[in-house]
Amino acid sequence: MxxxxxxxxxxxxxxxxxxxxxxxxxxxxASDITCIPNSSEIxxxxxxxxxxxxxxxMGVSSDVIDKYTVYSxxxxxxxxxxxxxxxxxxxxxxxxxxxxxxxxxxxxxxxxEVFFSIYDKSNDRFYEYSLNATxxxxxxxxxxxxxxxxxxxxxxxxxxx
Length: 161
Hints:
Layout: H1 3-14, E1 18-22, H2 28-34, E2 43-48, H3 52-57, H4 62-68, H5 73-87, E3 91-97, E4 113-120, E5 125-132, H6 138-159
Parallel strand pairs: 1-2, 1-3
Antiparallel strand pairs: 3-4, 4-5
Helix pairs in contact: 1-6
């Protein structure tokens, strides 16, 4: 059984739901979750928000982006909580970072540095993570990031009883 099968089964057992707001992973996390049978019972919504404008429209504070930049753990936390709130999901995952090249619209931060947060609504708790994604291609970096997120999501689900 792969991580996503375990995640879906754990969420089903717990009668919990999840939604995602992804930037640099471009929806791969949502795709990997929804490849699993019965995921429609636990997955509410996946948003791909490449631009600051649409992060803000989805509920991320422009003040947070202005103060910490779009490539920060603070923005990832805002993304996770905003998507959980928007969809009434028990868990929200927010992912932001730059992979393989500097973003011309946001020339800040370190290329390869990725931030993500898992928000647990029932405990009003954030789990915060970062990693370096320095594979040669965007495809490999996306897979690396999403695999890491799945590992951390399993840990969070094991903590939440």
